[in-house]
């Protein structure tokens, strides 16, 4: 087919192919969720419905897009890791990032009612920013996920003490902020324990560790109706191995998780 004289504009597109052999991480973060969570009256500091909706949306991303081997989320963010050998969308960063962001955003809206019910409608369309980061080694990738999980822990400990001081201790938010200035983790644990009889260690793991989604093989048994040649029907049990996205709320900083799930990462050579 003859090319039009306009074809040359294609050459203005820039090459954003991700470097080979690197894990491709797409991290999404809710845009201005400070306001979004306020307007939708999310429970402070953690809203279990909201965390459930984030995980549900992330699962939809993993199920719809190829080659994501692990995802990690906390607060208003989720990171998706494409396997290092992925050739999906020719490794074009903009394609990968926009597919992840749009699948996640539309799922967040689509599943909203499942988590918030009819009584709390969405007041306006939320959005998520995305970025792409490449990690060339398993160590770098594990350190990336450790960084996000450490961030989850630090923020959650702070937020838990902060909102306990406000909600149970009767402090204003300004007073709570002042009280926590310069305190270390041990001091915060101590405030919770000695003043409010809360043992931070027994707080729910989903809040302390965030959510890790991985693929797991499970045997599933289903009953099938079979038609026999003589027109009789018979029920038979069929077991097959199915890949499903499974949520974990465990430590990913230590080696145990990686030893228990050796299929997530590819060899470093
Ligand atoms: P950004 O990301 O620069 O557009 O701005 P924000 O406001 O999204 O800031 P970010 O992402 O650093 O912080 C997340 C905000 O979302 C923060 O204000 C706390 C809020 N948030 C996240 N999860 C929850 C929750 O479960 N409950 C409540 N009440 N707030 C939450
Ligand atoms: Mg931000
Ligand atoms: Mg945000
Ligand atoms: Mg955030
Ligand atoms: Mg098209």
Features:
binds 2'-deoxyguanosine-5'-triphosphate; alpha+beta; 269 residues; Alpha-Beta Plaits; 9 helices; 6 strands; six-stranded antiparallel sheet; binds magnesium ion
- Rounded mean pLDDT score: 96
Total strand segments? 6
Bound compounds, please? 2'-deoxyguanosine-5'-triphosphate, magnesium ion
SS-based structural class? alpha+beta
The CATH architecture classification of the domain at 17-153 is 2-Layer Sandwich
The biggest beta sheet reads:
6 strands, antiparallel
Name the poorly predicted regions. none
Name of the CATH superfamily of the domain at 17-153: tRNA(His) guanylyltransferase (Thg1)
Distance between the termini: 45 Å
Overall 3D shape: globular
CATH class descriptor name of the domain at 17-153: Alpha Beta
How are the strands ordered across the major sheet? 4-1-3-2-5-6
Helix content: 25-40%
What report would you give on this structure?
It is a single chain. This protein is an alpha+beta fold and 269 residues long. It has a domain at 17-153: tRNA(His) guanylyltransferase (Thg1) (Alpha-Beta Plaits). The protein is 40% helix and 23% strand. The protein contains 9 helices and 6 strands. The protein has helices at 33-39, 48-64, 93-110, 112-116, 138-167, 173-180, 185-196, 205-209, 256-260, and strands at 23-30, 68-74, 77-82, 128-135, 211-227, 233-248. It has a 6-stranded antiparallel beta sheet with strand order 4-1-3-2-5-6, sandwiched between helices. α2 (48-64) packs across α3 (93-110), α5 (138-167) packs across α6 and α5 runs parallel beside α7 (185-196). Residues 29-34, 37, 42-47, 50, 75-76 line the site of 2'-deoxyguanosine-5'-triphosphate (DGT).
């Amino acid at each position: 087919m003859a090319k039009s004289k306009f074809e040359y504009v294609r050459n203005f597109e820039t090459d954003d192919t991700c470097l080979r052999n690197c894990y491709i991480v797409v991290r999404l973060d809710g845009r201005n969720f400070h306001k979004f969570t306020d307007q939708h009256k999310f429970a402070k500091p953690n809203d279990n419905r909201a965390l459930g909706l984030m995980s549900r949306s992330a699962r939809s991303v993993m199920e719809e897009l190829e080659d994501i081997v692990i995802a990690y989320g906390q607060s208003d963010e989720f990171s998706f890791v494409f396997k290092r050998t992925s050739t999906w969308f020719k490794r074009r960063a903009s394609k990968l990032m926009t597919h992840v962001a749009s699948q996640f955003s539309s799922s967040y809206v689509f599943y909203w009612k499942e988590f918030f019910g009819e009584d709390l409608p969405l007041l306006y369309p939320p959005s998520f920013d995305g970025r792409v980061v490449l990690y060339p080694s398993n160590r770098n990738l594990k350190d990336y996920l450790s960084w996000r999980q450490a961030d989850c822990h630090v923020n959650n400990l702070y937020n838990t003490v902060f909102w306990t001081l406000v909600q149970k201790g009767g402090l204003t938010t300004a007073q709570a902020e002042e009280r926590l200035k310069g305190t270390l983790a041990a001091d915060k644990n101590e405030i919770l324990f000695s003043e409010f009889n809360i043992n931070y260690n027994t707080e729910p793991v989903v809040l302390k560790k965030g959510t890790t989604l991985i693929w797991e093989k499970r045997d599933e048994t289903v009953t099938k109706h079979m038609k026999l040649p003589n027109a009789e029907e018979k029920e038979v049990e069929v077991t097959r191995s199915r890949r499903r996205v499974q949520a974990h709320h465990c430590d990913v900083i230590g080696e145990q998780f990686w030893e228990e799930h050796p299929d997530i990462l590819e060899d470093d050579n």
